Amino acid sequence: MAGPRVVIIGAGVVGAALADEISARGWTEVTVVDQGPLPATGGSSSHAPGLVFQANPSKTMTELARYTVEKFCSLDVDGQPCFLQVGGLEVATTPERVTELHRRHGWLTAWGVESRILTADECVEKHPLVNRDRVLAGLHIPTDGLAKAVLAVEAQIRRATERGVTFLARHEVLDVLRADGEVTGVRTDQGDLAADIVVCCAGIWGPRIARMVGMNLPLTPLGHQLAWTGPVPALAGQKEEAVRPILRHQDADLYYRDRHDTLGIGYYGHRPMPITADEILSVDEADTMPSVLKFTEDDFADAWTETQSLLPATKDAKVEEGINGLFSFTTDGLPLLGESPDVKGFWVAEAVWVTHSAGVGRAVAEWLVDGHCSSFDLHECDVNRFEPHQLSPEYVLARDCQNFVEVYDILHPLQPSGDPRPIRTTPFYARQQELGAFFLEANGWERPHWYEANAGLVEGRSIVTPNDWAARYWSPIVGAEAQTTRETVAMYDMTALKRLEVSGRGAAAFLERLCTGKVAKSVGSVTYTLLLDHDGGIRSDITVARLAPDVFQVGANGNLDLDWFTRHLPADGTVQVRDITPGTCCIGLWGPLARDVLQPLTDEDFSATGLKYFRAKRAHIGSVPVTAMRLSYVGELGWELYTTADLGQKLWDTLWRAAKPLGGIAAGRGAFNSLRLEKGYRSFGTDMTYEHDPYEAGVGFA
């Protein structure tokens, strides 16, 4: 036996993959427990239709799917293949979907997955049941196909077992044992299992297991309709299970797969059907299996009508069986991977569908064994990415249901989130509403993208209108605000920027260890610097301002930065990290006339020598105490001005009265993005990610 003692909760397609991958890396003191029988445990894996489509706007999700395809193609159980590589076909029945297919083709090309745009005739050649009159174009991915999930589970169980992994069926987890903030084992209805690491791969039961250690998973099981036709005469005599590509008709929220002379029909167009993990029946109570709910025929009516239109041959068949199968949905549609922030050794690999299962197994195995994942960029899947409000039950239920509704929708990167909104409003919110702000959400904050009050600035300016896609959630006012910032002065709401306070007698040494740049400089210094991962990849770019000998303010990119700092705190208590974002606010005052606005409002010297570039000072702007940092993400003269939330509106009003006579405006995020792009300033998550080292990203100077 080698490695720490690991207990994996859940022997579905994720738990089996993790057991296989982690044992292949030499950790063999591993036990996998499941409340159900093996290999069909009764969770989502046991009823999953198995469609694997690799196209995804996320490179990480595509790569996880690609690895799953490659691995499943290599697996079999006594000669039975675990993957039927029949290819995938997405068809478009509207011009908007045709354009979307070209975008998806672009993603696949960028991510290194073969695909091709097909004409309508070529779509019919690939899938002869398709109605030529309904289809405008298609996207064909030859390496897509059907995963035989239960067979894949069995194949991976066999491999792991040969290396010494123990699988225990019919073991219900009653509690996760812990002491002094660390896991010590798992309590089952058949006894306790000692553990140094516990990994929750419980799928739809994940929230219940995570709750045992006080962890709140933003995951909701939702029913999803899957129906099977009786024999389709046009498919008579088909001896192979699948010969046609799996088919997605996303304009109608539908997908299809062969099963000999019948068809499976999956449908996302019905009402959301959420259920809590506690409401799921036990293995012994369920009629079929816990993850299968009764089929609701009325919800399927529109799907059957549309199916007969797209696939006319189905008019000669009937829907003979169906289920409402439970799958896991999250607030942003991405998996939940990583270690609990509060209980050391408790990990989750949740909200993972069959499509990405083997990839997630490999990723989490690398993360556990090596201390980091080298094969995939997992930052967007990290379970610690969420803000506190994003874990509230109301928010989780609403957004999880919304993601079910939108699972096949054409989604724009700036598309506004649904309810609940608004959640977080800055002290400037009322003033921004008065100016006709168009708000989009940023980390829960309502953030203006432009102001209708500036519509008059458009006249006489040369502002190029982007294409239809880029022009969504855009206005020519954006261009006018950007140009005005270059000409006079503008106020920007920067409150959505994450702000952390790092303090204590060990703060300077702590930051020196984690940051690439020298931050232990004189009080008043501000440093643009990077946080790097174990392999030198960029975790984040941040600013660090030294406000006192033992107090630093960090401008961060999100909750993962807070989690990174917290996990690296020294055990001696000499450093404290605190999220100060909710109690503070920030206005960016930028433009060639910025000093003309600010200097008359304060007794402090804001001249070029009085407050140099990348320096900070405490001052009063009118009656408002601020921390002023001479930074500019738009490439103009100016400052980031921070104050407490209770004084935010007063700061806004003070600056506004001084700026208006000089032609100053309030400007939105659209202009901000335009200006920072003109200057070539990088944005983490867009221009650089964990995959890039500083030199590849053009920030080697940091």
Fill in the keyword field for this structure.
6-stranded mixed β-sheet, D-Amino Acid Oxidase, Chain A, domain 2, FAD dependent oxidoreductase, FAD/NAD(P)-binding domain, 25% helix, 702 residues, alpha+beta, FAO_M, Gyrase A, domain 2, 4 domains, 9-stranded mixed β-sheet
Number of strands: 36
Note the main sheet: 9 strands, mixed
The fraction of residues assigned to DSSP E strands is 25-35%
The CATH H-level homologous superfamily of the largest domain = FAD/NAD(P)-binding domain
What class would the helix/strand composition place it in?
Answer: alpha+beta
Q: Please state how the strands of the largest beta sheet are arranged side by side.
A: 8-9-7-17-18-19-16-21-20
Low-confidence stretches: none
End-to-end separation in angstroms reads 44 Å
Helical coverage, percent range:
25-40%
Count of helix runs? 17
What's the average pLDDT? 97
The CATH topology of the largest domain comes to: FAD/NAD(P)-binding domain
Description:
Residues 374-425 form the FAD dependent oxidoreductase central domain. InterPro entries: FAD-dep_OxRdtase, FAD/NAD-bd_sf, FAO_M, GcvT/YgfZ/DmdA, GCVT_N, TrmE/GcvT-like. Residues 5-367 form the FAD dependent oxidoreductase domain. This is FAD dependent oxidoreductase. 25% of the residues lie in helices and 27% in strands. It is globular and about 85 Å long. It has 4 domains: 4-77 and 147-217 and 330-368, FAD/NAD(P)-binding domain (3-Layer(bba) Sandwich), CATH 3.50.50.60; 79-145 and 219-327, 2-Layer Sandwich (D-Amino Acid Oxidase, Chain A, domain 2), CATH 3.30.9; 426-494 and 582-677, Probable tRNA modification gtpase trme, domain 1 (Gyrase A, domain 2, 2-Layer Sandwich); 497-580, Aminomethyltransferase beta-barrel domains (Alpha-Beta Plaits). By secondary structure, it is α+β, with helices and mostly antiparallel strands. Strand 13 (182-188) and strand 14 (191-194) form a beta hairpin. The protein has 17 helices and 36 strands. The chain has a 9-stranded mixed beta sheet with strand order 8-9-7-17-18-19-16-21-20, sandwiched between helices. A 6-stranded mixed beta sheet has the order 11-2-1-15-23-22. The chain has a 6-stranded mixed beta sheet with strand order 33-34-35-32-26-36. The two termini are 44 Å apart. Helix 1 runs parallel beside helix 6 and helix 3 crosses helix 9.
